[in-house]
């Protein structure tokens, strides 16, 4: 294990203060262990994005030297970056994990879900996710959501109660006091759990650097064929882009978030190392979602609406 | 790892060596709390361009000239439409010196439970008053909650100093009145700061007008207030969360007890007792997330290895044999009721303490406390949402509890409705409002004797 390189600053802090990364890591591990202690069938949502990769890394540390006592669930929109799918499969094999896949494409093929006019599949993930949770009887679902990501998430609980339809009812959310999480739920209900609630994007990157965590290469600057739509650089691909009037060009870009190809934009960047990525984020004037997610631009309350319906 | 020489890299490097402060704010919109929070976020450059644009758009559509920083902390649409409050909102910002987690709570009377929730994990709380009105009922309630939850540091931000011509005597009188009141309640430390959130005086930048004030700005104080628990102040406690037993060829006999140290320090070689069984053994190793260490302290998440093979499971508590708490089935506590359904005498509930959940009976509710003037109302019969009161509980099994005054983490518990799982009540074991020294003023004692 890599020794921590981050130490508390000298001066006014007592010698007992943990560094912010140690404090956040300890809190996340505590949350992961609480869930395994109190639930029957937890599962970790694993997209191959950096937040879910950090969550898995924390789980590996939390239960070592034993294996991670739960499986992984990927909601596959069918519009994946090939680099990310390859990464996902490699991680699963390396750690001997079990992977469940809920496929949006299956639902479209069976006629249960219909493609949206804009081609975006993020909003279509909710039904396959919900049905997979029910059929596999998962009672706790770890998500990589962070409260700093978006306004609707700022009031999210660490333990977020969902009804049998995965819906989030603000009135049923419980006050969370001290470190005493309440995971009680009725049969058929489940709890979404967010171990990274208190992390920011910068914390995630600093932790990745400190721990030497491997990421899919699309997080680092590379040359790519992209075209512009709604002010974002999208990758050309079988998912449906570009349209006739959209011009493809080769640019040096990287991804700040990893999601459905049709609505996850790349940013212009020459950051090829973790240090350069961290420097870029520290200097960035846009939030991660503001810069890269078309789906959050749909309406002012877009995330809030999707969350109520059972989205992550 | 390579280093580049661009300016942002320097800033990123700065940000990598930092501690974390969790703090809470209490105050109403009228006190300018949203403006203060907005300014902290804005002036510390934590508000990014797309967020600011959204605020500028919303401000313009409301016919305001400049961006209304209060809108940065605007709530969910569900709250606006349904007229409900989904309580505590968490905000995140950083300076080169520190990372901050802010629990932003609404300050109105009916929101006691939100303030209690926010204060439960806070090391500091900012209480706002309007310089024109001084210490009002609501201020006293906020002070009472900070004292009740034993938040180590309290900041009194005397806001709207611009509206009292930045006059020092106005500030001094308010600061003196508040400090006397808070100290009487048992608040350990008060720092009073004269500010104007709207004009920006003493929030992030020192005030150009109030040269009579020589203390820190709000942000400077947040950056420098000591954080971290002094392990000498509490006996070690490890609530066992999970037993790690790989049972693999590589680790056939590994058996580790995983948990987050709730108080104090554990050292290899130390004699420990496991509660409730009372078995005694020695710590043979401490695994700090993959790294063997000689000692670990709160709030680190660790795995303890013990010399003897004794039966330990989730819910047990590992403590130093020398300083084991006594277990009890009768718990006297001060509570804040947080659920919409009331808590009544005779109520059968679940009690979660550390990692252990046991059945419990509400035996008595000796008093309810009015936060406005702290007067006790004897025998209220029940507690409703946002009530603070004294409660006597009988648990089905003995629990090794500490007094909340000694340990916020192992002296706290929640009550849960066994029928629907609702979190009913937040509890603190032992006397509340316990001043460091016994209160000797008979008049004050009158107010505090339940």
TrEMBL record, chain A:
Any Pfam family: PAPS_reduct
MF terms (GO), sorted A to Z: sulfate adenylyltransferase (ATP) activity
Keyword Signal (UniProt): no
Keywords per UniProt: ATP-binding, Nucleotide-binding, Nucleotidyltransferase, Transferase
Segments for region (Disordered): 293-312
EC identifiers of the protein: 2.7.7.4
Domain Phosphoadenosine phosphosulphate reductase: 42-265
Entry-linked InterPro entries: PAPS_reduct_dom, Rossmann-like_a/b/a_fold, SO4_adenylTrfase_ssu, Sulfate_adenylyltrnsfr_sub2
Database matches in NCBIfam families: CysD, PRK05253.1, PRK12563.1
Family: Belongs to the PAPS reductase family. CysD subfamily.
Record protein name field: Sulfate adenylyltransferase subunit 2
UniProtKB/TrEMBL annotation, chain B:
Key words, A-Z: ATP-binding, GTP-binding, Nucleotide-binding, Nucleotidyltransferase, Transferase
Enzyme class, broadest EC rank: transferase
Coiled coil: none
Top-level taxon in the UniProt lineage: Bacteria
UniProt-listed Enzyme Commission number(s): 2.7.7.4
Keyword GTP-binding: yes
Tr-type G domain boundaries: 18-232
Listed name of the protein: sulfate adenylyltransferase
């Amino acid at each position: 294990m890599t020794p921590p390189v981050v130490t508390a600053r000298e001066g006014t802090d007592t010698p007992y203060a943990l560094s912010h990364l140690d404090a956040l890591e300890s809190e996340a591990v505590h949350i992961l262990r609480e869930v395994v202690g109190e639930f029957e069938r937890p599962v970790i949502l694993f997209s191959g994005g950096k937040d879910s990769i950090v969550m898995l890394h924390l789980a590996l540390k939390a239960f070592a030297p034993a294996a991670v006592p739960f499986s992984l669930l990927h909601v596959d929109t069918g519009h994946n970056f090939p680099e990310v799918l390859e990464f996902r499969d490699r991680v699963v094999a390396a750690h001997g994990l079990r992977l469940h896949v809920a496929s949006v494409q299956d639902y479209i093929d069976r006629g249960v879900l219909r493609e949206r006019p804009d081609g975006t599949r993020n909003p279509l993930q909710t039904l396959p996710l919900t049905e997979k949770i029910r059929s596999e009887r998962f009672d706790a679902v770890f998500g990589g959501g962070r409260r700093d990501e978006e306004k609707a998430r700022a009031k999210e609980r660490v333990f977020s109660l969902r009804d049998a339809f995965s819906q989030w009812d603000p009135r049923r959310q419980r006050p969370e006091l001290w470190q005493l999480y309440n995971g009680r739920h009725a049969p058929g209900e489940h709890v979404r759990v967010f171990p990274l609630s208190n992390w920011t994007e910068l914390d995630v990157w600093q932790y990745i650097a400190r721990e030497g965590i491997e990421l899919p290469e699309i997080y680092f600057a590379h040359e790519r064929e992209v075209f512009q739509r709604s002010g974002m650089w999208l990758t050309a691909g079988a998912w449906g882009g570009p349209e006739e009037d959209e011009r493809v060009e080769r640019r040096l870009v990287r991804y700040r978030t990893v999601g459905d190809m049709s609505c996850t934009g790349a940013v212009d960047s020459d950051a090829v190392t973790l240090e350069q990525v961290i420097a870029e984020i520290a200097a960035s004037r846009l939030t991660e979602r503001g810069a890269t997610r078309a789906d959050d631009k749909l309406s002012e309350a877009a995330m809030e609406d999707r969350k109520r319906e059972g989205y992550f | 790892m390579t280093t580049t020489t661009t300016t942002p890299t320097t800033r990123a490097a700065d940000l990598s060596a930092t501690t974390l402060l969790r703090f809470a704010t209490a105050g109403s919109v009228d006190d300018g709390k949203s403006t203060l929070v907005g300014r902290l976020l804005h002036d510390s450059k934590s508000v990014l361009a797309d967020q600011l644009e959204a605020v500028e758009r919303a401000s313009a559509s409301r016919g305001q000239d400049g961006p209304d920083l209060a809108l940065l902390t605007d709530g969910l649409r569900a709250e606006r439409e349904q007229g409900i409050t989904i309580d505590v909102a968490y905000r995140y910002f950083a300076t080169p010196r520190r990372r901050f987690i802010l629990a932003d709570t609404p300050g109105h009377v009916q929101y006691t439970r939100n303030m209690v929730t926010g204060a439960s994990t806070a090391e500091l709380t900012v209480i706002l008053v309007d310089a024109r009105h001084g210490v009002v009922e609501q201020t006293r309630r906020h002070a009472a909650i900070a004292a009740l939850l034993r938040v180590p540091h309290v900041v009194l931000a005397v806001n709207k100093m611009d509206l009292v011509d930045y006059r020092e005597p106005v500030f001094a009188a308010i600061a003196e009145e508040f400090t006397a009141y808070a100290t009487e309640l048992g608040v350990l430390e008060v720092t009073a700061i004269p500010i104007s959130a709207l004009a920006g005086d003493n929030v992030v930048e020192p005030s150009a007008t109030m040269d009579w004030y020589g203390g820190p700005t709000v942000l400077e104080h947040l950056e420098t207030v000591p954080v971290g628990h002094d392990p000498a102040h509490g006996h070690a406690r490890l609530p066992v969360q999970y037993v790690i037993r790989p049972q693999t060829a590589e680790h056939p006999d590994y058996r580790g007890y995983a948990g987050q140290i709730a108080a104090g320090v554990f050292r290899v070689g130390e004699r420990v007792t496991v509660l409730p069984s009372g078995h005694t053994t020695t710590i043979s190793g401490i695994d700090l997330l993959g790294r063997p260490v000689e000692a670990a302290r709160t709030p680190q998440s660790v795995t303890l290895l013990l010399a003897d093979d004794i039966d330990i499971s989730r819910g047990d508590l590992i403590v130093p044999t020398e300083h084991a708490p006594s277990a009890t089935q009768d718990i006297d506590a001060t509570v804040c009721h947080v659920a919409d359904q009331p808590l009544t005498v005779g109520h059968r509930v679940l009690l979660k303490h550390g990692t252990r959940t046991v059945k419990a009976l509400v035996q008595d509710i000796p008093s309810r406390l009015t936060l406005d003037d702290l007067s006790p109302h004897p025998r209220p019969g029940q507690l409703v949402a946002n009530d603070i009161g004294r409660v006597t509980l009988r648990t089905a099994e003995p629990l090794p509890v500490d007094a909340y005054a000694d340990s916020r983490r192992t002296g706290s518990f929640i009550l849960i409705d066994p029928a629907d799982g609702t979190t009913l009540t937040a509890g603190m074991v032992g006397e509340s409002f316990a001043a460091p020294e016994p209160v000797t003023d008979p008049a004050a004692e009158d107010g505090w004797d339940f």
